[in-house]
Every structure is written in C-alpha cells, then in structure tokens.
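[step 3/7] fold_predict: job queued, chain A
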Amino acid sequence: MGGFLYWWQHLPESMDPVLIHLGPLRVQWYGLMYIIAFTVTYFLARRRCRLEARFQLYDEEFLKNILTYGFIGVLAGGRLGYVLFYNLGYYLGHPWEIITPFSFTGGFHFTGISGMSYHGGVTGAILGSLFFCKRFKQDFWNIADLFFPTAPLGYTFGRLGNFINGELWGRVTHSPIGMYFPLAPEGDVLRHPSQLYEATFEGLFLFFALLFLRRLKLPKGSTSAFYMFGYGFVRFFIEFFREPDRQLGFVLFNRFSRGQELCGLMMLIGVGLFAYLKMKQPLIGPDTAG
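[step 4/7] structure written:
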C-alpha cells in the first residue's frame, strides 16, 4: 500500500506535458486531448444517428461539417473567454499574446497558447452551431439534443490534459488522496487532484446522467438545459477543492472563485432555458422521427 501511495502522490512529477519535440516547437498532450475529445464526440453522435429515429436525417458529412464549426467555436471562445474572464489586465498590455504562441517579454520565446476557459469554449461552440444552423436552415434544438449528451465525455479528456500539464491543481489537503504538483507555488505540499475530480464528475457522471435523461419524453432541446444546470451545479462544488486562479483569487464576497460565479450564471441559464423550452417546444422522445 505504501508503494502505491507514494506512486500516486508523486505521479504529477513524473509526467511530461510534451508529447513530441519538433525543434523549438512542442506538440503537447493537452492539444491532443482536444482532438480526441472531438473524435469521441463525432463517433458517439454518429452512433446515435444510426440508432435513434429523430437523428437519422443527419449523415456523416453533416456531422463533420457541424463539428468543424463547433471546433472553431470552442478554440476561439475558449481563448477569448480566458482573456476576458481570467486575465484581462495582462492581455491588455500584451495583446499579441492572445493569438500568437510567442512571448516577447525578456526576449523572444515560444510559449504555446496558454490559457483556455471552459465557459468561453462552450459559449463559442453554441454560437458556432447556431451560425451553422442559421446558414444551412437546420433545427438547432434537435441538434442540441444530439450533441449535448455526448459533450461531457469529450470534456473528460480536456481535464485529463490539464492533469498531464500539471495545471489547475487543487487546494492544499492533508488527505492521502492528495498529490504533489511541482508547478504549484508550494510544490512540496499535498493538493487535491481537482482535475481528476472534474474529469470524473463533470465528465463521466454528467455523461451517464444525460444519457439516461435522453430516454425520457421531454421538450425538444431540453438536454441542453439539463447540461447547463448539471455542469454548473457539479463544478460549483468541485471548485471548493480547486485552487483559485492566482491572478484573481476569490472574487465574489471574497469567498467564491470566478469559476463559481460563472457556474452560478450557468445554472440560472439552464433553469430559464428549460422553462422557455417547456412553453415553446413539443415533447419528444428518442424514438420520435426528426
């Protein structure tokens, strides 16, 4: 048991976030996790299109096209969300670093594009999908029911990427489940592996919960509302184990983090969205034709 515990607690120290070095450039596990996330989402959506009557009108080419719009939305929204929500002061003084993987502070350095916001990413994905649906005259709420139940599983890989990077570590703990994160301000103290908590509960748990809900007869599009509320609810509580961003600390009543602020807003949007859909959209089940 002692050997396993030592391995567990020191695991972050043994992980290299860089998958491949190409001269001065680096291919990191985190970027690969984004690709895996969208690949998993594609195959899950394709399977649903084959098995569920309401989605059988969507072929593989359609899925690839809308996921392309969603992927661009996630990247753009995630980056801009991080800039606006988490580090606006810095990027106002270094605007070129928003879109370029280089730092000019103290010389010229390749840094990669560091900093993505989940809330910005999901907003970007929704806006990209809305644009696609408006351009090609598609039913957004039907597509929302197709993709939202699959999204948490893809998100799981993103949090595993954060863990491999050794970033977004948790708060200090005396529990043996804690780990040593060498990039943390105090790398010699145990911290909650909050990235793994998020991968488990915001990812796997929410994935299976939404898969169950999709079997019920609900207003069209309502899985998007359940996703918004469910993710916001779960992450709000996990944030109590996660170290707040150093440049922000606690922001709301000097007690809650920026992530908790955004999750609170997300839950309110989920409740309001479900109320709207209940009034405006027909009840629909998994065997209903699209």
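[step 5/7] annotate
The chain has ten helices and eight strands.
The beta strands are 18-22, 25-28, 102-103, 109-110, 179-180, 190-191, 218-219, 283-284.
exit 0
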